[in-house]
Amino acid sequence: MAKPIGIFDSGLGGLTVARAISGSVPGEDLVYLGDTARVPYGTRSAKTVVRYAIACAERLLSFDIKLLVVACNTASGVALGELQQRLDIPVVGVIQPGARAGVQATRTGRIGILATSGTVASGAYERAILAENQSMNVFARPAPLFVPLAEEGWVTGDVPRLAARRYLQPLVEVDVDTIVLGCTHYPLLSETIHEVAAELLGHDVTIVDSAQATASALTEILDLPLSRERAAGSLEILVTDLPGQFGAAASRFLGKPIEGLNIQVIDL
Length: 268
Ligand code: DGL
Description:
Elements: E1 5-9, H1 15-24, E2 30-34, H2 46-61, E3 67-70, H3 73-86, E4 91-93, H4 95-105, E5 110-115, H5 117-122, H6 124-132, E6 137-142, H7 146-152, H8 158-173, E7 178-182, H9 190-201, E8 206-209, H10 210-221, H11 224-228, E9 235-239, H12 246-254, E10 262-265
Parallel strand pairs: 1-2, 1-3, 2-9, 3-4, 5-6, 5-7, 7-8, 9-10
The structure holds D-glutamic acid.
The site of D-glutamic acid (DGL) has 17 residues, from helix 3.
């Protein structure tokens, strides 16, 4: 039997990554772990996030996964090296693929990053972008309110536009031409971020979705001819808590109803 791909995130936002992965490698079976009991990771210390990330990875190993995707940008920023050292399967984070896509997209070499406070503090996007191309100028800014707005499904209209104006202002001042969405939740606000950024900048801007970039990167790692032989992969969802609004939030991030999916509540 083919082994599944393990994916974990601090909560449900990483379903944007699972969705992108099932789009680019549809034959793969996915086991998704959302640490809904301990979300958010983005405001916690690096030490705590590393501890949580190890617990998530270890649980997914018990599903005999062939590859681990760290869908959470914050965990990718602070725990990827530790996980790669501990695990003897490939461990892929979302930051390097997002950084590479940003470098490929920019024409002026001025790249903005929007992410959680934890990801910004880790400096991981700057390192990854400069490792791709030393001549890049990188400007990373936290955009914490985008997380609850995406969870609430409040992704268009006055309120998200106001938040976007505030968070984009520092990136407008340095005239970026590319913005990497360095958080699982932000792809839901992509349209609003794009519109407001273009309005404030007075020119178009390229929005890079690190979830999509990671999914594309996986096609290079996986054995595609084999994967394509199979029609559609399965998705199993594990969560550490089942909050009241689970169904609505999960289907928003996944982009489709969750009815019929195998969902289990686990303890870590
Ligand atoms: N999953 C987190 C990330 O991508 C966002 C939510 C959180 O702070 O846990 O950074």
